[in-house]
Amino acid sequence: MIRPADLSLIHLVGRVNQGIRREMRFRLARGGTVSVQEYTALALLRESPGLSNAELARRSLVTPQSMIEILVKLEQRGLVSREVDPAHGRVLRSRLTAHAEGLLDKVEPEMVALQEEMLADVSAEQREVILDGLLRAMVKLSAGLAGSTRAE
Amino acid sequence: MIRPADLSLIHLVGRVNQGIRREMRFRLARGGTVSVQEYTALALLRESPGLSNAELARRSLVTPQSMIEILVKLEQRGLVSREVDPAHGRVLRSRLTAHAEGLLDKVEPEMVALQEEMLADVSAEQREVILDGLLRAMVKLSAGLAGSTRAE
DNA sequence: CCAATTTCAGAGTAACTGATATCG
DNA sequence: CCGATATCAGTTACTCTGAAATTG
User: Is the model more confident about A74 or about A5?
Assistant: First the structure.
């Protein structure tokens, strides 16, 4: 017999994510005019400059085809610059432009505020535990459990 | 100055969610032929039978227009039956059909397995803390922080 | 020749905004 | 008349699968 709690985490993550995206969309609409998906990619690039499209895709758990679409758009809008990797002529490494840095500086305080409001009733210790747990979950998901990345 | 850790949780939830949905889509493709979005609604209805469209939407943090689309499709496919609330002629209360119960019985073990694989390195105590924390976050998000539901 | 990366093209899923009608 | 619900219609956001070219 499956108890309700057995499945609550995967559902709960989905709902919380939906709530977060909803709020992000709303708040991003004022500031810059970047979509949630674009903001997310920019934030990742700020934290890890020089990532390639393939690397960005892996870290975001999406296909490279999905990521390239975001990346190309960001490049066209002058938010990202891409340069050939000197060690591997096929790889293009992405970095934020000054414009993007400025945009993030303007927008990130709002995102921090969102997170703070959302976690108002969650202690610092509890946040650490959650962060650690979700990170472990992401490692497993990245490894490609039984599904999408079938080991042959 | 914004430290990287300041924003990690909202991003981490997004990535974990993406990983979960990716796996769910893959595993659901075999069993029933329900989409992730449909499965999620069915699971919620099993846990809370008799919810109206508006209630389902609120619990899922989506608009009623988004939810009605799923619900109508499920009804057409014979997975959900809807009846007028005797106390309020406008409200339609949804319940799973026997067919849907059978489908969930077949599919849920796979979803439980997914959650177990994903949380393999997370202790029972840690899961409790995460569950509690995300629930608190969802309460805040449901209340409509500063954004989408602007209090005038 | 093989593995990884990039990227074009088309498709499908999922969520949204706006507007209308009904019920209490 | 107001607030909540249901729902039609059109649109936008996001991700995927398939296929082709390039590099080491």
Answer: A74
